[in-house]
Design a protein that fits this description.
Length: 870
């Protein structure tokens, strides 16, 4: 699958700049677990007939107790995996030590296919349990570097920080994978990648959660560190794929080339010499040039430096041998070679003032394209091996590429296709090229007057056996799926339709011609951001919502996809776990309903969902309100908005969480609010389009109305004292709120903000602001408008931020100084992106709001009272 060219900037941004050390032991994560029975991590296994219809899972309960549960899906039975008391008795007899039935020294299980025995894997050894006699015998635990950690499927926040430990990650897949730590707020912190076959030992803390994904973001495993070191083996998941999926037809649709450019028939090898493309006859050794006019600025050599940087393996002192990016036809009679024009070689330079391993400052740099820079352009060239000549291919339909990706030949070698993403993101096409004539015709031709959200709403599935394509589009105003005839380019069916959106495709069954997908807003009366799991036929018939319950859902399917575990919740409803049938969604059995009684006993209160009309007076805007735990209805509380208006997603939490950073701030004496205004994703196309060339809007016309509507209902919200804070794009948004709505927002903390979209990463900004760079970038610049500042401002930035160029913040500082404005600045040595995510940065944020929204109000009130007394 050749998707690098389409996604290369995204991959570079989020993997090249990954951190390398262990996550800081932040005291904020070191909280006791107070919610139990909230997760079911199934471990499916086959019976003697080879049918996978059973699974076990482990429950970690209060006071370090644990239970093991066995579910027989075909019988709809949930039961203890074994008699825990009898196992405890047998283990005590074998080891000579007291063993509690509630705290067995067992971490995981392995059931025998005959159903007569089960292996108990423990931290101190393994034991085999005979389920008939309950005899226990010791076995040898040969797991390297600790026991094998179970691979969960649903990412969840790190909720505790225990003793130091380590996890050894083993990548057994043939492709690279990405590694993330999941922080206490559920955010992913990148920790690099693992090449195929690579092992990596990662320092961590017990209770920390680690996520492994494919390069397209597909979840491959979720591992929770334990007190003793463990092994996390990545073996993939059956039936999974990314958003760019190939059909399964035998041998067709492939980008065929050996690892060294050899043809499918083994007779030819393509190679690069002097930037030109050559062929080598592998039998005779004769070498024939196919091109003569290439040069370093127009070459058939891959952009090896860029590709290796993307894969985090580039070594400037050891450049790779130039190789071509070639795609052979299945019959080896034609060859497509990509010809590259290198892009801008921009680098960002940073001085690390206080490096941990030396006294003197250290200069670092990294590649970082910005809006308007020339991207590398790679276009396909077609060659006929019969004549050893190039067949001209007109680039009229792909003249100005952002990327060209997924070059693939039809099975019969009659044509090849590729995906063209136009610079400016207003055209996205699947193009077909005739192998004999070079004629180019569109198969899919997606165009937009605003933008095509290729980075968040792209799905293309080639069904080679039936010559069809499943394609995702917002052309009718909502994100839906379409079925194309891959030969003629005609739309055979709109698969899904309605005033709701497809959020993701989970699985395509080509034989049954059915699609399982996630939908938002499909159930009338529910929050439109709640996700439901659905199924539909290719022709759009028999649309079925497979999940029930007023909440947001995730599904974990069995290996044969006959069953799935439905886990659903709301911010005010702890998770419910149910086993359901995949064909009709019918309930098989209840599994677990989360127990949050210990959490509630601490005084914890869920945030309150609140809905109000947006700027048009018709569209509902959804958000949350956090009150202090020690809330007094008779007091007036200042209001602080947590903002992130990035158009790539929606951000208000929908599922249950036992902890919110917003609650920490609320408990200082504030009401904290968060909403998703227009311009964010996961609603209608019209809702999303507000952001186009208009990032300065940030949904403020909706957000201000929403807060005012909440204050009209709740008189304890004091709108004379409103603050705002955000990080990254949220840092830009927060400051923009002060500049454009200074009459409403009085105090701001802007953290790591991309304050001028011309200074930030190219893919994110051009996706929403377009290309070429025009005056819309100027209108959205906080630097240009810094002179408009009113109120109290704290700017925060890390000197080693490699996500957003720190100079973006410092240019705001420069503009504020020139405008003679007062402000505060925290420039944090050694810190990366998101200073507010550090313990020190978070404390400074809290204190800034306390000083300017609480203490200042107290001084004013005292002066007012003194004046009244006199």
């Amino acid at each position: 699958m050749n998707t690098k060219l389409l996604f290369k900037i995204i991959i570079l941004t989020f993997t090249l700049f990954a951190t390398t050390g262990a996550p800081a032991q932040n005291a904020r994560t070191n909280r006791p677990t107070l919610v139990f029975r909230d997760r079911v991590e199934p471990n499916w296994f086959a019976d003697s007939s080879g049918t996978t219809n059973q699974f076990w899972y482990r429950l970690d309960l209060a006071q370090s107790n644990r239970q093991f549960v066995l579910v027989k899906a075909d019988q709809g039975q949930r039961q203890p995996a074994f008699d825990h008391a009898r196992v405890a008795e047998a283990l005590a007899k074998l080891t000579g030590r007291e063993v509690s039935a509630e705290r067995l020294p067992v971490e995981s299980l392995a059931f025998g296919r005959d159903g007569k025995s089960v292996t108990l894997h423990g931290t101190e050894g393994d034991w085999k349990l005979d389920l008939a006699s309950y005899a226990v015998t010791a076995e040898t635990n040969n797991a390297p570097s600790g026991r094998q950690l179970p691979a969960g499927r649903v990412p969840h926040p790190s909720q505790t920080t225990g003793p130091e430990t380590e996890i050894t990650f083993v990548n057994q897949l043939p492709t690279a994978v990405d590694l993330f730590w999941v922080d206490p707020d559920g955010k992913r912190v990148a920790y690099g990648s693992l090449a195929p076959g690579e092992r990596k030992t990662q320092h961590t803390f017990a209770g920390h959660v680690w996520l492994v994904t494919g390069r397209t973001g597909f979840v491959l495993g979720v591992f929770e560190a334990e007190a003793k070191s463990g092994v996390a083996t990545i073996v993939g998941r059956g039936g999974g794929f990314g958003r760019f999926r190939r059909g399964g037809g035998g041998g067709g649709g492939a980008s065929l080339a050996g690892p060294d450019g050899t043809s499918p028939d083994g007779k030819w090898q393509a190679f690069v010499y002097g930037n030109n493309l050559f062929l080598r006859d592998l039998k005779s050794g004769k070498e024939t040039p196919l091109t003569y006019d290439a040069n370093p600025n127009n070459t058939y050599a891959r952009d090896q430096e860029f590709e290796q940087a993307v894969n985090m393996q580039y070594d400037a002192s050891n450049p790779a041998t130039p190789t071509p990016d070639v795609h052979w036809s299945p019959d080896s009679k034609h060859l497509v070679a990509m010809r590259l024009q290198p892009g801008t070689e921009r680098r960002v330079y940073e001085v690390e003032s206080s490096p941990p391993n030396q006294l003197q400052p250290k200069l670092t740099s990294y590649p970082y394209l910005k809006p308007g820079d020339q991207v590398p352009i790679s276009k396909p060239h077609l060659f006929d091996l019969g004549t050893m000549k190039e067949i001209p291919v007109s680039d009229a339909l792909f003249a100005n590429p952002w990327s060209i990706a997924d070059v693939r030949w039809d099975k019969d070698s009659s044509r090849f296709t590729f995906l063209f993403n136009q610079r400016g993101h207003q055209a996205l096409r699947v193009l077909a090229v005739d192998a004999q004539t070079g004629e180019v015709k569109p198969v899919v031709d997606e165009e937009s007057k605003t933008f095509i959200d290729y980075s968040g709403k792209f799905y293309c599935d080639y069904l080679d056996d039936t010559h069809e394509i499943i394609w995702m589009s917002e052309r009718d105003g909502w994100n839906h799926l379409y079925l194309y005839d891959a030969k003629t380019g005609e739309v055979k069916d709109q698969i899904t339709k309605g005033d709701w959106v497809v959020r993701n495709v989970d699985y395509v069954d080509e034989k049954k011609r059915q699609i399982w997908f996630q939908a938002g807003g499909i159930v009338p009366g529910q929050d439109p951001y709640f996700i439901q799991i659905c199924r539909v036929n290719f022709d759009g018939t028999e649309l079925k919502v497979l999940t029930e319950g007023d909440g947001t859902h995730t599904a974990e399917f069995s290996p044969d996809r006959r069953y799935f575990i439905d886990t659903w919740s709301r911010v005010d409803l702890p998770p419910v776990n149910e086993l359901r049938r995949s064909d009709d969604g019918k309930l098989v059995c209840k599994l677990e309903t989360a127990d949050a009684s210990a959490l509630s006993a601490t005084g914890w209160k869920a945030p309150e969902p609140f809905v109000a009309k947006g700027r048009d007076g018709a569209t509902d805007i959804y958000g949350l309100i956090w009150r202090p735990q020690k809330f007094d209805m008779d007091k007036k509380y200042p209001v602080i908005e947590d903002i992130y208006a990035g158009p790539q997603d929606s951000f208000v939490p929908k599922g249950f969480r036992p902890h919110y950073t917003q609650q920490e701030l609320a408990d200082d004496g504030f009401v904290v609010v968060q909403s998703d205004g227009m311009g964010t994703a996961n609603r209608s196309r019209q809702f999303h389009d507000v952001c186009w060339k208009n990032l300065e809007d940030a949904g403020f016309p909706d957000r201000v109305l929403w807060i005012k509507a909440a204050a009209a209902k709740y008189r304890w919200m004091d709108l004379t004292r409103v603050g705002i804070y955000g990080t990254s794009a949220g840092g830009q948004d927060a400051l923009r709120g002060m500049l454009d709505h200074g009459d409403f927002y009085k105090v701001c903390v802007s953290d790591s903000g991309c304050q001028d979209n011309r200074m930030d990463k190219i893919w994110w900004n051009e996706q929403w602001m377009g290309w070429p760079v025009d005056d819309s970038y100027v209108r959205s610049s906080n630097v240009v408008d810094a002179h408009k500042l009113q109120g109290q401002l704290l700017l925060m930035v890390g000197e080693m931020d490699q996500n957003v160029d720190p100079s973006s913040t410092m240019q705001v500082v420069n503009a504020l100084i020139k405008a003679d404005k007062d402000f505060d600045l925290l420039y944090m040595p050694g810190a990366g992106h998101g200073v507010a995510g550090t313990q020190y940065g978070w404390r400074r944020l809290q204190e800034f709001f306390e000083k300017n929204l609480l203490a200042a109000h107290g001084d004013e009130l005292a002066a007012h009272n003194a004046a009244m007394t006199n």
